[in-house]
Amino acid sequence: MKRTGKYFLILLVLTMLAACSRPYRFYGSPYDRAEPAGEISGTNWNNTPFRLSDLRGKVALVFFGYTFCPDVCPTTLAEMRVLVQDLGDKAGDVAVVFVSVDPERDTPARLGEYVPVFNPTFYGVHVPLDELEPVKAAYGVVAEKNYYDEADSAAGYSVDHTARVYLIDPAGNLRLSFGYGTPVEDIRSDIEYILQQ
Length: 197
Fold this sequence. Notes:
CATH superfamily: Glutaredoxin
Largest sheet: 6 strands, mixed
Number of domains: 1
Low-confidence stretches: none
Mean pLDDT: 90
Number of helices: 5
Oligomer: single chain
Strand order of the largest sheet: 1-10-9-4-5-6
């Protein structure tokens, strides 16, 4: 009986050591190699200048969307709100950045009515239209207007756009991206791992 208990204890210790030595597997889609994230410069919802590079030292979660979006954008921002709450005392090490792909309608004032409703610490960034294309290209973001029949909608158009959250590590490197609907706990796990590195 004592011998069986001893073997069981040894087996348990070996199993725990094997589990600890396994490399972490990301839930998000990793980039082949970490490269500096494309700079994003614009105006935050509170009319202050915004530069992504000023967030070095934090994990930045960047999402491209627009305030008139009926589903994907508000859902993603609501999930980011839950994520930040779930991070607890680590929340100060994470910045959520919402970049508008509809700068003609999404003025800083409009972003100021929209973004803080989810969390007043979130950035809502207006990038001028003539500067937006290289920013989108740096992240592989596609966004195009889809015009409505004016009789059907007062909004005029929607914007079909890439719906991914991009994770930039504290060193400013683009590390992961998350598809729409990725569970909040999976994103949190990846953030916590990166913050430990």
